[in-house]
Amino acid sequence: MSSLPPDVSVRVEGLSKRYRIGAQLNSDEALVSNVGRQLVAPLRNYRRLRDLRRFEEQADEENVVWALSDVSFVLRPGDILGVVGRNGAGKSTLLKVLARITEPTTGRIELRGRVASLLEVGTGFHPDLTGRENVFLNGTMLGMSRREVASRLDEILEFAEIRKFADTPVKRYSSGMYVRLAFSVAAHVDPDVLIADEVLAVGDAEFQRKSLGQMRGVAEGGRTVIFVSHNHALVSSLCNRAIWLERGQLMASGEVEDVLNTYARSQDTHGSDVAHRTDRIGNGRVRVTQTFLRGRDGGPTAAVAAGEPLELVVRYAGESGVDRLTVNVTIETLLRERVATVANFLSGDELLSIPAEGELVCSLDALPLNEGDYMLTVRLEADGVTADQIADTSRFHVDPAGFYSTRAVPGARSGMLLLAHRWRVEP
Questions:
Q1: In a domain, 420, yes or no
Q2: Domain shared by 224 and 309, yes or no
């Protein structure tokens, strides 16, 4: 019987998973060598079995890799957890352990109620069975009775948009049809915990919209969703909690925006001095050497207050004789979401007879950005041709305090912009 309190749906304590990397055997096609290998095979197999039994004592050897290491977190009914991290960070391993596909090496997992998982497209489908038959097969594997599957069959086929092909073998389905049907089955078993791993990556925009709505519906019904995705904008819009894994270790856990921003800030940043960076495109006639924000005191700053005037400075160096320069600066979140663009062609300011070195200064009367971390991407065009384009040239933090006359400042989830406004009542 579960020891989980009523307000907890998932509890993970000290979860670790390690794998043994087997050494590759040398292949020798000589007849004598092949016969010799067969003769010593029983002894070799015995040694391998002994090594496996001694696996617990080999944790520090080079042939052991930790996919997860001491991961702990707690989820409550209604939580939608986003799991983020680089490729190989342990995200999929975590889901497989939670879904009971593989056993943990150490640690404890407690989940309340029925668990439905969708980890790979078409997992549990038989290619020679029809879509209708696979619904019954997959639904049964997920814990539904035949009567439950029959009562929801029409709804499952309608959601997956394959009613016309319900009696066609699934081996003739496209990958999109496969994933729609697999997701539809998993989402309609009324799971207490729904586990999904990048299942929306192969769906079209309409399917993604429906699937997101379905997962939100699961959470609003008091169930729990655990979702892995590299699309951080999607994680931000769908989830209320997040964890960040790095090399199997839990680096951050908490509110989704806090975790995503912590993860984004941890990624390699080149700083404001970009003169020597090579990840740029353009003919090089003019190159960005540095970008920064200039505050009220006239000096560079990495933290600004929303609503205050400031200057955006782009330092450059290049050839002499450039007659006309165009500068385009994009403000983006650390998740690569575009917030705003400032450019001289938008303001109607012509930049003519450009010296070989200098500063391009954009004055902003007020910065209406909500609290958060942002970065700049710059593109320069010399005489109508791209001279330099470089991303993430500098980063800055916005503090919304003081933007409004009261202390009531909206959180980051309320939007990216702070709009100056007033209210009144009229009869």
A1: no
A2: no
Distances (CA, A) of 304 to 208, 295, 372: 37, 7, 10
Categorize the per-residue pLDDT at 48 as very low, low, confident or very high, splitting at 50, 70 and 90.
low
Q: Are residues 91 and 55 in the same domain?
A: no
Rg (CA), the chain: 28
The whole-angstrom separation of Cα 164 and Cα 247 is: 45
Looking at the fold, whether 91 and 176 belong to one and the same domain comes out as: yes
Mean pLDDT for all residues in the chain: 82
Same domain flag for 58 and 78:
no
Q: Could you give the C-alpha distances from 398 to 266, 300, 328, 403, in angstroms and in order?
A: 18, 14, 21, 11
Phi, psi of 238 (to 5 degrees): -95, -40
Judge whether 393 lies within some domain: yes
- Please, which residues have CB within 8 angstroms of residue 361's CB and are 6 or more apart in sequence? 294, 311, 312, 313, 314
pLDDT at 121: 56
Contact call for residues 210 and 187 (beta carbons, < 8 A): no
187's tokens:
């989402």
| Matching residue, tokens 């989402």 | 187
Q: State the CATH number of the domain containing residue 75.
A: 3.40.50.300
pLDDT of residue 402 exceeding 70, the answer is no
Let me know whether 79 and 208 are in one domain: yes
Portion of the chain with pLDDT greater than 70, in percent? 82
pLDDT of 377 reads 94
What is the mean pLDDT of the segment spanning 194-201? 74
**Structural domain of residue 102, as residue ranges?**
68-266
Q: Residue 5 falls within a domain, yes or no?
A: no
C-beta separation of 85 from 244 below 8 A = yes
The Cα-based distances of 85 to 72, 90, 245 in angstroms read: 16, 8, 5
pLDDT above 50 (res 23) = no
Please indicate, yes or no, whether residues 332 and 360 belong to a single structural domain of this protein: yes
Question: CA-CA distance, 130 to 280, in Å (whole number)?
Answer: 51
Task: Reply yes or no on whether the pLDDT at 265 is more than 90.
Answer: no
- Which pairs count as long-range contacts for 205-210, CB under 8 Å and 24+ apart, including other chains? 207/161, 207/176, 207/179, 207/180, 210/159
Are both 298 and 397 inside the same structural domain? yes
Q: How many domains does the chain have?
A: 3
For 267-322, what is each residue's pLDDT tens digit? 655 445 688 888 899 999 999 999 999 887 778 888 888 778 889 999 999 988 88
CA atoms within 13 A on the CB side of 26: 3
Q: Which two tokens stand for residue 383?
A: 């005489």
Q: How many residues does the chain have?
A: 427
